[in-house]
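Re: your question from the hallway

Yes, I did run it. Sequences:
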Amino acid sequence: MEAANRGAIQDEIRFVARAEGCSPEALMRRVAKGAVVILKVPFGEGSEALGIGEGLRIKVNTNVGTCSDLVDTDLELQKAKLAVSLGSDTIMDLSTAGDLDGIRRSLLHSLRVPLGTVPIYQAAIDSIERRGSIVDMDEDYILDVIERHGKDGVAFMTLHSGITRSIVEHLKGQPRVTGIVSRGGSFLTAWIFHNGKENPLYSQFEYILELAKKYDFCLSLGDALRPGCLADASDHLQTEELYTIGRLVERARKAGVQAMVEGPGHMPLNQIAANVILEKAVCKGAPYYLLGPLVTDLGAPYDHIVAAIGSAVAGMAGADFLCVVTSAEHLGFPMLEDIRHGVVAAKLAAHALDIVRIGENAMELDLRMAKARARLDWDEQIRLSIDPERAKKVHMAVPTKTGACSMCGPYCTYKILARYLGTDQVMTEKCL
Amino acid sequence: MEAANRGAIQDEIRFVARAEGCSPEALMRRVAKGAVVILKVPFGEGSEALGIGEGLRIKVNTNVGTCSDLVDTDLELQKAKLAVSLGSDTIMDLSTAGDLDGIRRSLLHSLRVPLGTVPIYQAAIDSIERRGSIVDMDEDYILDVIERHGKDGVAFMTLHSGITRSIVEHLKGQPRVTGIVSRGGSFLTAWIFHNGKENPLYSQFEYILELAKKYDFCLSLGDALRPGCLADASDHLQTEELYTIGRLVERARKAGVQAMVEGPGHMPLNQIAANVILEKAVCKGAPYYLLGPLVTDLGAPYDHIVAAIGSAVAGMAGADFLCVVTSAEHLGFPMLEDIRHGVVAAKLAAHALDIVRIGENAMELDLRMAKARARLDWDEQIRLSIDPERAKKVHMAVPTKTGACSMCGPYCTYKILARYLGTDQVMTEKCL
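Structure:
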């Protein structure tokens, strides 16, 4: 960001501009004003990098990571690789059990996409071991963990710096149905209440900015107070946190540190656009990283579909970065199939949005698919599918010898109209 | 509709008003002006009926029906019953093989929801048997089939009356990527080209209105020219057909016949609202029955998710009635699991829309779910799921003894904050 402010076009900017099909100069200006962030791929080749924000393709993140009940580094690597193979642009490591440093480093060295983390998880969990509890977590240790992640090459970190002591006091007076549903947010809130002190991610924000510059990571300002159900949406707490985050974004920009903003959680469909527009206004165009939005509380085990709906509406209003919601959301730890459903749903939403954001250049594959359909070219249709294996299985489920699919069989519109419209289908003499 | 025009509140209106929680008088006014249609449940008890349109809950239809490659009446009944059990409000019989009269009557007598049909399918397929081809289909026979469906108690029929001889002439001059993708539309277009005559569903519209009055069925004016891919969306052909349909809606209303309008097919996200608003303007508020919208051509075998995205955006703009798109769309004949995925996705979109359309009354279950989550009441959460069996399976996939789910385990936010926020969770001493 500093280089962009000086007007210096770095190799990463050129790499992203090429990938996105835009000019390096225009991209640099957006980076300089903070409307685009560039995430590094630390162990990639040359200057691989990923751009997120204004005018760029919508990006998708997938969370992986161990839990107390299942520590299996190989499984997490498999989940991450599956997600990337389906088009996930970044991976976040949300591990909460096992060798946290080791898992993070395995992911960093195994993937060719930017890796994100939530350092407060490790700080809290290590504190249980070191001091017996989360609430006795040492302030300096939190900063040490952030530095360790930075040193390792983490590209972006969720930091819940916007949840302050004064905001959480309101939680007691204005109870929500689901209180706080951010795990990091709950660790920090418990710490604030227990110690009667300010959130270290807020009070030590200047030092965090120094670390971000030194190790070149992007801040992802976490929405610890995102609503956990529709009834809590767009309340005073959520919005007060957003305004705090807006001020932090400005401080980050002054320091030459990149920042994006997370939100908005569970929310009725008709509140989403307002929340995205508010984020863009309050945070002066900072890239918006979607958690959800989930437009009903009743979606589990199909919250990947609920999130695809919410993401599409948020993306139309200007959101830039989708986080995969798996089909295990609200129910348990996601396994491989949950990741697959989640990434597919998010990628479909992202692609539908790119068609609006980028226009014809994003529609090339859609046009190829449409042409393959019109000429009943099943091999090409299956090849172009986001999930060729499953597409083939569904296509073959009811065998047909008509050349069409089993739904219409001899009554396929492409066959019926070929004679009259001069297309190249073989007619089924049976019908016409 | 005639009774509503006279100001007579019929029992069906009272039934629907009770189900929707609105006043019979207000509902009657909306029926009289054509903004709401009432569909009968012919073999239900008493005056069961279903309302679709302005101010009412969004409704969902599921298509079932045999195909040439698989004729199994029991399977179609099973599909219909599964769909209804998941909340489908209506069923359409799209059978194209086997004993068409028998299958339709089985569905009519087995279901307690309004049944819809597409009579042109039966007219065309019978014509192949009777005269050797679709294009030799007899005009009177088409009307006979409509009458037969009416007599049987069909509540609504898709009639492609808006695709006229003058419109299809443009198809030759302005080729689309995917031409016509409506099966009924392709039968009629082939017939028009072959015979050089006007579409009988247009030229005989007055007689069709007489049949509709006599047998009390609702017209569902089919969009034979809906785009079959994004590249064809919102073209002249689609819009010219819509304006023709708008004039037919007016003629239907003058005759005291109920009508809804189908649309808009494949379409980029940012064109959907315009198409819905155009339909409402051109058809003077007639209920809009969604086919799709599909916001990318690349979705198969996940077009149920693509349609959920499109439906939500269309519903926000005023659409009233969703048609389930199954996970077999574009690939083949849908089996039970495809129906399940499709209905679940459509119901989630419809419910998210109802929360906006109806407000708090539609959020009751969401609030119960949110409260169940906050007290970690898994039995209630699974009971409230749209698919309890699958919800339970996902919840149990990774066993945990923490009382929370396996995702967070001991680091469950509800447990961590219970001490400070005075909620009723048992603390895990390990953490705090």
